[in-house]
Write a sequence for this structure.
């Protein structure tokens, strides 16, 4: 791992771990497929989603797409998913130009959130 990537990853993890979560009211469990387009690769975007999703105990996955966008499936309480999506759209080191979100079926038995390579 090169020095720049290591420093960036440390920064991303620190940033994600310092995000203050509001008190979420209970909401229904949903699953969304979200695609973020813009400058979202090579800036720690997937790692940030992963860290926040893990802290919130969401399940699903995140991956880079060949067209330069990032796709994620997020499963958990609706209000938490929308909070995470809003955090990613507001991220200063990335530039989300477009975001698309669709409903997908709940994945029963899924236990964790993962980065798909």
């Amino acid at each position: 791992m090169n020095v720049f990537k290591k420093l960036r990853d440390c920064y991303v993890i620190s940033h994600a771990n310092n995000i203050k979560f509001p008190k979420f009211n209970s909401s229904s469990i949903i699953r969304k497929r979200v695609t973020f387009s813009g400058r979202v690769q090579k800036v720690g975007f997937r790692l940030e989603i992963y860290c926040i999703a893990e802290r919130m105990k969401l399940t699903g996955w995140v991956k880079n797409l060949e067209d330069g966008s990032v796709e994620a499936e997020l499963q958990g309480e609706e209000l938490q998913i929308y909070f995470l999506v809003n955090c990613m759209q507001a991220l200063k080191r990335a530039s989300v130009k477009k975001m698309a979100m669709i409903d997908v079926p709940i994945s029963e038995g899924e236990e964790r959130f993962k980065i798909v390579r």
Notes: Residues 3-21+28-116 form a domain with the Alpha-Beta Plaits fold (CATH 3.30.70.100).
